[in-house]
Amino acid sequence: MSIQSFIAKTGESPNFIAFMAHSGVAAYVVSRFPYGLPRVIVASIFTILAATKEFWFDLHYEKTPPQTLADSALDFAGYVTGIVVGALVP
After folding, report:
1. Per-run averaged pLDDT (10 residues), the chain, 90 residues
2. 20 near 78, Cβ under 8 Å?
3. pTM, whole model, 2 decimals?
C-alpha cells in the first residue's frame, strides 16, 4: 500500500474522524478555558466529565447506532489526547 492510499484511507475512516473531533474539542476547551482556573484543574474536571459522558451516558442513551464499549473507549482516548495537548499548549 502506498503512503498516499494509506493517508486517503485513514482520512476517510469514521474512527479516525471521531477521534480527531473528540481530541480537537478537548484541546480547545482545556487550552482556552476563560475563567482563569489552572489548567490542571480544568483538565481534571474535563477528564471526569468525558469519562462520565462516554462510559455512562453514551452507553445508555446513544442508540443510533448503538454505542459499544470499544466506541466509548476510542472516544475517551480522543478526549484524553486532546486534554493532554490542551494542557501543554502555551
Report:
1. 80 89 95 88 95 95 89 96 93
2. yes
3. 0.87
3-state secondary structure of 70: helix
Alpha-carbon dihedral 2, 22, 81, 72, rounded to 10 degrees? -90
Cell of 56: 455512562
Q: Counting beta carbons within 10 angstroms of the beta carbon of residue 7, is it exposed (0 to 12), middle (13 to 18) or buried (19 or more)?
A: exposed
Residue 29 cell numbers, joined: 476547551
Q: Are 77 and 19 in contact (CB under 8 A)?
A: yes
Residue 30 CA to residue 24 CA, distance in Å, equals: 10
Q: How far is CA 72 from the centre of its chain?
A: 10
Task: Give the distance, in angstroms, between the CA of residue 15 and the centroid of all CA atoms in the same chain.
Answer: 11
